[in-house]
C-alpha cells in the first residue's frame, strides 16, 4: 500500500514537492543503515554524515566530469591546478564511480571500526570518535578548494548518460530509482535482522561479554554491520546528489549527522518502519515549519525533539507497539472475564440443581 | 604418573593476577581432572572469581600460565578460549535480555561462529531438538517465547546454565550458580552439577556453605589470593588453617 502510494505520488505532487519527497526517501535509506548499527547493535555513530557525503561526492565527481567532458572542472582552474588530480581519475567512468560511492564509505567505516572495536572502544567514546571523524573530514574538504571545491562543494551538473539532469522526466526517473532502492534496502535489512545475524546484533547490544564467552568474536560482527551501514549512507548520498544537484561539506558536518540520529530516534530504534517514518516526518515537518515560521522553526523543532525523547524514548513505533499490546490485553481480559462469568453461571446452575435434588 | 597427567583437563601454574600492585591471585597452582566437580570456596576477596576470570580470559595473569587440554590459554582471546571448550557463568546472570528464551539457547548452540555462517544459517533440526531437551531440563519450555529480560532472577540463572550446556563445553566455570534460588531449585542445581559432570568437568565458586556441604566432593579453599588447602569436604572442614580463616573472619564480623 505504501509502495503504491509512493509510486502514485508523481501524479499528485508538484515537481518541487516530488523533489523533496525523493530527497527525504534517500535520507530514509541512510536512516535504515543507521538503525542497523545503533538500534540493533547499540553503537551510536554521530558521524554518519561523512559516509553520506563520501557517497555523494563520488557521484558528484562523476557528474562533474561528464559535464566538463572529462576536462578540468572550473574550480580547479581558478586554483591554478592544471591536471586532473589522480584521485579524480576513477570518476571518469560511471562503472567505477557508482560502486565506489558505496565501497569508499564502507572501507573507511571498516577501517575505523576495526581499530575502534578491536580496542574495545564503545559507548560514548565511540560516539565521540565518530564525531571527530566528521570534524576532520569536513575540515579537510573545506580546505581543499582546488581539489574538491571547498565550501562551494561540487555543483553545475549537466547530463547523466546523455540525458539532461534537470529535465523533469529525468528527475522523475531518479524519484522512481530512489523508491526502488529504498524498497530493496528495506528487504535487505529485513533479511539481515530476522536471521541469526540479526539476533547476534541484538545480543551484542544486550550483553557483549556473554557473546564473547559464548565463542563469537563481536569485532567481526560490529565491523561488518558498521560497513554495511556506511555503504547504505553512501548510496543515500548518490541519490541525494542526483536529485539535488549539489553536494557541499555542510552535508557531512556534525549537526547534520546528529539530525540523522534524531530521525531514527523519533521513528523508533530497532524497528525497520520506524526510521523511514521518522525521516519523512521530521523532514516534512521541518520543511512546513520553516515555510510558515522562518524565524522560529528551528527552535520549534528543538522543543519537539526534546518532548519526543522525554516522553517517547522508544519513538513512534514504541507508541504503536504499546497501543497494540494494550488493545490485545484488553481483548484478552474481556474474553477471559466472559469465560469466568460463564463458569460462574454454570456453577450456579449446578448448585441450584444440587439444591433442588437435596 | 603419565596416566594421571593425561587425564588433567586444566592446570594453572604459578598464576599471579595483579590489579594496580594488589595481588588478587598470588602464585596459585591449581589443576582439575576430567569429569571432576570441584568447589572453590573462601572468604570474600580470596581471589576465587579472579581465578575463574583468568581461566576464561577475562583478565590476563601477570605471571604463570593456564593449560587447558594441553593448550596454553594465556594469550588467547575470550572467544577463542570459549571455542576451545570452556563455558563461563557469571555471578550476575548474563543473558540476552531482548531475545526470547529459545533464541538465547539457539545462539549459544555449538556450531560455526563466523559472520558469514550467521548470515546463511537456517533452522537446524538437530539443534532444535537439543534446544527442546535443554528447555525441559531448565524447566523453561513454557516460557520459551518470552523475552529473557522479563524472567525472574532464578530463571535467568537457569537460562544461563542452559546456554552453557548448549555451548557444549568440556569445562564449565560457574560463579555462584545457586544464588537467588529457592531451596527446591538449589537442590535441583546441585543434582544437575553432578549429572553434568558425567561428561564434563565443572568448577564451581560458591558462598552458600550448605550447598557446598551437600554437593561438594572435592573442595579447594582460597584465602588472600593463595590456595590454602585442597581435599574432601571433611578434610577441609577439619583443617586448622581453614577454621582459622573462617572463624577469624566471623570473629571480625561480630566485633563490628
Describe this structure in words.
The complex is a heterodimer of chains A (about 350) and B (about 260). Chain A is built from 15 helices and 4 strands. By secondary structure, chain A is an all-alpha fold. In chain A, the strands form 2 sheets. A two-stranded antiparallel ribbon of chain A has the order 1-4. The longest helix of chain A is centred in the last third of the chain and has 43 residues, at about 315-355. Residues about 350-358 of chain A have low confidence and may be disordered. Chain B has 11 helices and 10 strands. Chain B has helices spanning about 1-5, 50-55, 80-85, 100-110, 115-120, 125-135, 155-165, 185-195, 210-215, 235-240, 240-255; strands at about 10-20, 20-35, 35-40, 65-70, 70, 85-90, 170-175, 200-205, 220-225, 225-230. In chain B, strands 6-7-8-3-9-10 form a 6-stranded mixed sheet, sandwiched between helices. Chain B has a 4-stranded antiparallel sheet with strand order 2-1-4-5. The radius of gyration of chain B is 19 Å and the shape is globular. Chain B is an alpha/beta fold. The model of chain B is unreliable at about 1-5 and about 250-255 (pLDDT under 50). The chains are: A mainly alpha (about 350), B alpha/beta (about 260). The interface of A and B includes residues 195, 200, 213, 216 and 270 of A.
Amino acid at each position: 500500500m505504501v509502495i503504491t502510494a509512493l509510486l502514485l505520488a508523481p501524479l499528485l505532487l508538484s515537481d518541487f514537492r516530488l523533489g523533496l519527497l525523493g530527497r527525504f526517501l534517500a535520507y530514509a535509506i541512510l536512516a535504515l543503515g543507521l538503525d542497523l548499527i545503533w538500534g540493533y547493535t547499540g553503537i551510536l555513530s554521530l558521524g554518519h554524515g561523512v559516509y553520506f557525503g563520501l557517497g555523494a561526492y563520488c557521484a558528484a565527481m562523476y557528474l562533474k566530469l561528464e559535464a566538463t567532458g572529462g576536462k578540468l572542472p572550473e574550480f580547479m582552474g581558478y586554483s591554478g591546478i592544471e591536471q586532473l588530480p589522480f584521485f579524480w581519475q576513477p570518476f571518469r567512468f560511471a562503472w567505477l564511480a557508482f560502486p565506489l560511492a558505496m565501497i569508499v564509505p564502507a572501507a573507511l567505516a571498516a577501517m575505523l571500526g576495526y581499530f575502534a572495536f578491536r580496542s574495545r572502544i564503545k559507548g560514548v567514546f565511540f560516539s565521540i570518535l565518530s564525531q571527530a571523524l566528521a570534524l576532520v573530514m569536513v575540515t579537510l574538504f573545506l580546505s581543499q578548494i582546488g581539489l574538491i571545491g571547498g565550501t562551494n562543494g561540487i555543483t553545475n551538473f549537466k547530463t547523466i548518460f546523455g540525458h539532461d539532469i534537470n529535465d523533469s522526466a529525468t528527475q522523475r526517473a531518479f524519484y522512481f530509482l530512489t523508491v526502488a532502492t529504498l524498497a530493496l534496502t528495506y528487504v535487505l535489512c529485513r533479511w539481515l535482522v530476522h536471521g541469526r545475524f540479526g539476533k547476534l546484533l541484538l545480543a551484542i547490544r544486550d550483553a557483549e561479554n556473554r557473546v564473547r564467552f559464548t565463542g563469537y568474536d563481536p569485532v567481526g560482527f560490529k565491523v561488518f554491520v558498521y560497513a554495511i551501514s556506511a555503504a547504505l549512507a553512501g548510496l543515500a548520498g548518490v541519490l541525494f546528489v542526483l536529485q539535488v544537484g549539489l553536494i557541499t561539506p555542510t552535508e557531512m558536518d556534525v549537526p547534520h549527522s546528529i539530525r540523522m540520529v534524531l530521525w531514527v530516534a523519533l521513528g523508533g530504534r530497532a524497528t525497520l518502519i520506524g526510521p523511514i517514518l521518522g525521516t519523512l516526518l521530521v523532514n516534512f515537518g521541518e520543511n512546513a515549519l520553516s515555510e510558515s515560521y522562518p524565524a522560529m522553526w528551528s527552535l520549534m523543532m528543538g522543543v519537539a525533539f526534546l518532548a519526543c525523547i522525554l516522553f517517547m524514548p522508544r519513538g513512534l513505533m514504541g507508541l504503536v507497539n504499546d497501543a497494540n499490546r494494550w488493545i490485545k490485553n484488553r481483548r484478552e481480559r474481556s474474553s477471559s472475564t466472559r469465560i469466568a462469568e460463564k463458569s460462574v453461571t454454570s456453577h450456579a446452575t449446578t448448585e441450584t440443581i444440587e439444591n433442588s435434588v437435596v | 604418573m603419565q596416566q594421571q597427567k593425561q587425564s588433567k583437563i586444566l592446570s594453572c601454574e604459578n598464576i599471579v593476577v595483579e590489579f594496580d600492585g594488589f595481588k588478587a591471585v598470588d602464585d596459585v597452582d591449581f589443576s582439575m581432572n576430567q569429569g571432576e566437580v570441584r568447589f572453590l570456596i573462601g572468604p570474600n576477596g580470596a581471589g576465587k572469581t579472579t581465578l575463574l576470570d583468568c581461566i576464561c580470559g577475562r583478565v590476563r595473569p601477570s605471571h604463570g600460565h593456564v593449560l587447558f587440554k594441553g593448550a596454553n590459554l594465556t594469550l588467547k582471546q575470550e572467544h577463542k578460549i570459549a571455542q576451545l571448550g570452556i563455558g563461563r557463568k557469571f555471578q550476575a546472570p548474563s543473558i540476552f535480555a531482548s531475545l526470547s528464551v529459545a533464541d538465547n539457547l539457539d545462539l549459544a548452540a555449538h556450531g560455526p561462529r563466523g559472520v558469514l555462517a550467521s548470515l546463511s544459517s537456517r533452522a537446524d533440526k538437530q539443534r532444535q531438538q537439543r534446544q527442546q531437551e535443554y528447555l525441559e531440563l531448565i524447566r523453561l519450555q513454557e516460557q520459551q517465547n518470552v523475552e529473557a529480560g522479563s524472567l525472574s532472577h532464578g530463571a535467568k540463572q537457569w537460562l544461563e546454565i542452559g546456554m552453557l550446556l548448549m555451548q557444549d563445553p568440556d569445562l564449565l566455570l560457574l560463579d555462584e550458580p545457586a544464588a537467588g534460588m529457592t531451596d527446591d531449585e538449589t537442590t535441583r542445581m546441585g543434582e544437575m552439577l553432578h549429572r553434568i559432570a558425567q561428561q564434563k568437568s565443572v568448577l564451581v565458586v560458591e558462598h552458600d556453605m550448605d550447598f557446598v556441604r551437600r554437593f561438594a566432593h572435592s573442595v579447594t579453599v582460597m584465602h588472600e589470593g593463595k590456595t590454602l588447602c585442597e581435599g574432601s569436604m571433611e578434610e577441609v572442614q577439619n583443617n586448622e588453617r581453614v577454621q582459622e580463616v573462617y572463624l577469624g573472619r566471623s570473629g571480625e564480623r561480630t566485633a563490628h
